[in-house]
Design a protein that fits this description.
The chain has two helices and eight strands. By secondary structure, it is an alpha/beta fold. The protein has one domain: 2,3-Dihydroxybiphenyl 1,2-Dioxygenase, domain 1, CATH 3.10.180. The strands form two sheets. A four-stranded mixed beta sheet has the order 1-4-3-2, with no helix packed on it. A four-stranded mixed beta sheet has the order 5-8-7-6, with no helix packed on it.
């Protein structure tokens, strides 16, 4: 038996802001959207490469302000891609961390912090 994948659920509050941040800015694709009724909260799945996230407007699923670390193989390329979209969100600043990674963080519209991280090349 082996554990193989984690799919975090993050709180979302507004579908339009969610799309602007996760799809337009971060480049995720929408896998599915679900509402039990048109006026009820949204639950959706997003994916970029091997990273899958679920976002929920349901109050019991998650609280705003979560933190995630997402491994990326070329942090400089991702930072440059996002910097080119600085009209949507401030350009990220890559920092070398004392524990041996290079990181940058972005915060979504409800305060969830996504830290993208890459091991330092020696």
């Amino acid at each position: 038996m082996a554990l193989t994948q984690t799919t975090p659920i993050l709180r979302s509050a507004d579908a339009t802001q969610m799309r602007r941040f996760y799809i337009d800015f971060l480049g995720f694709e929408l896998l599915f959207e679900h509402r039990f009724e048109p006026h009820l909260p949204l639950y959706c799945a997003l994916k970029r490469d091997a990273c899958e996230l679920h976002l929920s407007e349901h109050t019991g699923d998650a609280q705003p302000g979560a933190g995630l670390r997402i491994a990326v193989d070329d942090i400089d390329a991702l930072a440059a891609e996002l910097a080119a979209k600085s009209d949507l969100h401030p350009a990220p600043q890559v920092e070398t961390m004392p524990w041996g990674t290079r990181d940058f963080s972005v915060t979504d519209p409800v305060g969830n912090r996504l830290t993208f991280t890459s091991a330092v090349s020696l």
